[in-house]
Amino acid sequence: MRLISTTFYFLFGCLFVLNFSACSPNNITIQDSYKSVFDSAKVEGCYAMFENGSGQFSIYNIGRYKDSTYSPASTFNLINSLIGIETGRIVNEKTIFKWDGKTYHLPNGDTALGWLKDLSMAEAFKAGSLPYFQQVARSIGRDTMQFWIDSIPYGNKKITGAIDSFWLNNTLRVSADEQLGLVKRLYFNQLNFQKRTQTIVKKQMVQADNDKYKLSYTTGWGLKENGKGLAWIMGWIEENRHPYFFVINIEGDAKQDLPTISKSILTTILKKEEFFEGKR
Prior knowledge:
This protein has one domain: DD-peptidase/beta-lactamase superfamily (Beta-lactamase). The chain contains 10 helices and 12 strands. The protein has helices at residues 7-17, 35-40, 62-67, 76-86, 121-127, 130-140, 142-151, 176-187, 195-205, 258-272; strands spanning 2-3, 28-30, 44-51, 56-60, 69-70, 96-97, 119-120, 174-175, 206-209, 214-223, 229-239, 242-252. The strands form 3 sheets. An 8-stranded mixed beta sheet has the order 1-2-4-3-12-11-10-9, sandwiched between helices. A two-stranded antiparallel sheet has the order 5-8. A two-stranded antiparallel sheet has the order 6-7. Helix 4 (76-86) crosses helix 6.
């Protein structure tokens, strides 16, 4: 581990942390030691955590985190949910869309068994159901979708190709830095949506809630233009009512179960940073 302290890195850091906290020469820690965590999983990627209370960043692979953009893949379900609820296409988390009777496959070729039934929004969000959110996107429509993507704003804001799959075709692109900023703004209800809308979506992100910590995140899984697999996990962990925001972006062989790998990497890093004990 080494702390960024040179004038160059301080100024570079200011460019992307300005929306999160007051810039200082000591608020970014580069976690080179986490390379072994990614290497052992046979993936490339980046990781970042922002501690809201102190304004501190902890980052592995800062170049990928800040300067590279990727398809949001199914993390766009978060945006789809926000827009769907805000525009009334989704009433609440109980809103059901009927299964279209088709069989769908995950990026690694496995059949997506959890998608082959009628689903509520809550169930679809947990399952990362493509057909559910494709129906949501079609009901929103291109013009309304573009308005909200511009309003957030989200990534490069491009809607290219079919309205029900543009977040998968690698034309809409977003950086890990932007994804981290998105979940931070969502947590504090700072996005351009009603508080009710943001509260409903945040509720769907909760993965664990006990007396020591509360863990909330969403995941994404897709394919890059070169055929490699891509996965995201982004959200926050709260201990003693203090939020810590994180993002992980990885790529690897398309046949790998990258969402499971990203969750394992997250758990490993959070344990290294002494979370899960309620002592942070």
